[in-house]
Every structure is written in structure tokens, then in C-alpha cells.
UniProtKB/TrEMBL annotation:
Origin superkingdom: Bacteria
InterPro entries for this protein: Big_3_5, Ig-like_fold
Cross-referenced Pfam families: Big_3_5
UniProt keyword terms in alphabetical order: Signal
Keyword Signal recorded: yes
Signal peptide: 1-41
One example of a Gene Ontology biological process annotation: carbohydrate metabolic process
Domain Bacterial Ig-like: 378-445
Protein name: Ig-like domain-containing protein
Amino acid sequence: MTTREIAAPTAPATTTRLARALTALLSAFALLLGLAPAATAQTGETTAIDPFRVTLSVSGDLRPGGEVTYTLRATNTEVIALNTTLHHYGVRVPSGFQYLGVTGDLDGAVSDLGQGVNFYGGDPGSNTVWGGGSREAKFRFRIPADATGGTIYSAGVGMETKLLWNRDWHHVNNLVSFTVTPVQSATQVTVAPSVARVGEPVTLTANVSAVHGTNTPTGSVSFAVDGQTLTAPVVNGVASTTAIFEATGTKPVTATFTPASGTEWQTSVGTGTVNVQSEATQTQLTLDPVAIHDGDQITATARLTPAAATGHVVFTVDGQTQRIPVTGGEAQATFQLITSGEKTVLAAFEPANPARYTTSQDEETVAVSELTTTMTVSVNPSTATAGEQIAITADITPEDATGTVTFEVAGRTLTAPVVDGKATVYTSLITKGTYPITATFTSDQPTRWLGSAGTGSVTIQAEGTETEVTVDPATVAVGGEVTLTARVTPRTVDGVVTFTVNGTEYLADVVDGVATTTVLMPDAGDETVRAVFTPADTERYAPSEDSATITVTGTGGDGGGSG
């Protein structure tokens, strides 16, 4: 509370009272004659408004828009009233102050009482103030909302008094004053974008406002964040700057407002947070085609979002790896797959700056089928003689398929490797007939090549024999003896030779390729000898025959023979 007291004069009380009475009498008389001027407002400070000691004090919230109370107290310093009358009293306040109300010794409405603008006063009710008595009123006002910190506001008093018959207004200006305290400010921090990226600018904004009143603070704001101090002026209550961050994390921001005038504004501090994150990426993998055969190629394409992300994409599939740089948001690799099955292709993005972008990956599958093979079986010769060597060949398509072929023929199992698309075995059969042949291809890369099978046949004929018959002697007399000899080729063949002479058959075993018997020729004339070889193994050898002629001379007689 600021109090300014006007002290009472120190002259003797009796002299003072007489002087005042005389003065009042003369003043009234002069006024009646038109010789005395009207009362005017006093300037400067005064100690008394006779016979009153006046005290004006101010208290309250000394800020823009704050409420203050002016307490006006008028005390009669005389021992007796001496017709001292207080007709009106009031206060003169600074321009712009809003009147709120009054309490205390005041009767009736408050008005300017004809004392000009910014004066507020009224009738104290009981106008006669006896010596030692006082009147007090409390006037409430609101300081203008646009008041500036540091502003000095002064107020004065006015009183209409009557001493004897002289009734005058007396004013004392600038009796009490107060200074508006520096206005409290508030600083709020905003960050845009709310999620920041490494290497990209972030806007830091401080909105500085008055906690009280309608004025806008002026000055500057210093932003302290991540080891950086950035200063920006406050324009229309806003200070803004940009910051760039090199690492991820939560970055506290402290914004300190420094007023242009410390008497007008108080400093204030606001805080905020910058959330710096690596920007999330997305990798989308596509394969072309998505179904192939062993040995075919696929193209794997990885597309990155955002397209501005830089780095490499690592493609892996079936034990193969390729690391491809990202260009224009895309990376592409080609693979040849040589094993069958469902293969997973993985594309993993590795950012060039891991603090700027996150990793990401995608995967797709490709179906790899075994390559089919076909087989044809051929036999050379296709018709063979028993015991003759034959070649059985399996032709495999495609020619680059590798593995083995298993042949089944006449209860035998024969195998041969595939070389340049062919597998051949050699064998011989000793029994005549037609034999089916089956051949089965088994790949030595079963995840790449499918097996296949083929059939064929071979016809085996009995091995031919030759029989050569001789007679000894070729000419014989009737009743003579003739030796019949059959030589069979091959000599190793076993069997029987049947000699037929004149309707009679003679049998002889073949030993070492020769069969022999003797016969008697009973009749003259030419006789044909027929020799037919019958092999012991008719499945292995074919029969054969030959003939010869015996000339019998002389006359006939009894015939006979032996074999």
C-alpha cells in the first residue's frame, strides 16, 4: 500500500480558528461583491485542505486489468466543528480507469460532480464533521487492460467544504501514485512436425503472451535444444526458428523469453520436446515370373517407400546373395534357380544412413519345378541271333540331363551312365524269342531333373547250323557198305543227325561236330542220302540238313546196315 499523508498545520489552534473564520467571512463577502475568484484545482502536493487532514492510499493488484482501491480519508483537525461542513469528496483517477464501486461514507450515487472527467465522488451523508471526526470512502477501479508495465499512475483528491458561509471545492492532484509491475508473460512451445526426421529441418515456435492484459510482449526467445542455442525475435507474439538434428531420440526444448524492456515484461520459460525418429521405410518385393522350371531365371524387384531413401537391398534366395544399390527408389536382381521346390526370396533394405531411415524387408515365394525328361529305347540289331551281341541304347532329352539308366531285359538288370544324352549297354541272349526291354532314367540331380522311362524289344532267333554230309565210297557194289558222315557247324553244338537212305532212318549223335554211321546198300541204282541235324537245344540252335548220292552197281540182294 502506498500512502501519502497531508499533515495538519502547526499554528496555535485558537489563532487558526479565528483566522479561518475571518478568512471565510471576508471570502464570502468578497464573493457577494464579485471580487473573489472561484476555487480552482490545486497543483503539486499540499499538506491540508483546511481544516481537514487528507489521506489518500492505493492498494490492490497493480497490473493490467487489475483491481485497485483508493482509500480516501478526511479528518477534521479542529476541536469543534465551527460550522465545518464536508459537502462532497472524491478522487481523480488516471484516464482509462474503469469505475467498479464504492464503500464507506458516501450517500447517493457517484458522479463527477461537475469536476471534469476522471473524477468520481459523492456526498459523505453526514456533512457536518466535528473536530476529530472523519469521513472515509473506498473507491474501486480497474486498471486498463492495455496498461504497460512500468507505467506510473497518479491520483488526486477533491473536496467541497464550507467554513462558516464560504463553500469551495479544493483539489490536490498527484497525491498518490503507483507503478504497474512488469507484466507476467507466458511462453508456449510448439514443434512441427511432431515427429522429426534426422537431417530434416524442424520448426520450433514460441508463442509469447501476456498472462494479464491485452498487450503483446516484445523481445526475443532463445531456444536451447540438443546443444544448440537459437535466438529469434518475437513478432506479434510469435518467435520461430528451425533446427536440424543428426541423431534420433527425444530432444527437450527450452524456450526463454527475454523482454525488450524489463520494466514492461517479465521473462518466462516454455518447454517442449522434439521426437526425432528414423523415418520408416517399406520394401515391396515382386518376382517375375513366379513359377519356373529348374535352370530358369527370375527377376526380383524391390521398390522402396519413400522413394528418396538411399542404401542397398540385399536379395537372398536358395543360398545365393546379391547386394544391389537403390536407385530412384528401386533395386533389381536376377537369379538362376537350379533346384526344385518352393523358394523364398528375401529383399532386405539397408539404409545408407540408419539414423535417417529404418530398415525394412519383404519376401515372396517362387515355385521351381523339376525339368521333365523323355526317353526312347533302341536295340541294334533289333533282330539278333541267339548269342549275338546286341546294343541297347536309351536316348534322354534334354541332352544335358545327367544320371543313370537301368535296363531290364530277360531277367537281367544292366546299368549305364548318361553321357551327352545317351546310355548304352551291351548283352547277348541265347534263347530265341521276342524280349521286352524297360529302361528307367534316374537323375543324379533329382531336384532339377525328373526321371523318365522307356520301352523297347528285341527278337532273338535260334543260331543257324550247317550240316555237310559225305558218303564213302560214293560208288559201291550191291551189298557193299557205305560210311555216312555228317559234319555240323558250329562244332560245339550238340544234337543228333538223322540219316535217311531208301526210306530207312539211321540216327547218330554229333560229337565234336561229327555224326557217323554205316549202311549196306542192297539194291543197285542211285540212292539219295539225306542227313538232318536236330540240335539238342532247339531254343539255342536251328536244325540243318544236307544230302548226297550213292551209286550202287551190280545186281540186287539182301541189304542191311548199322548206325
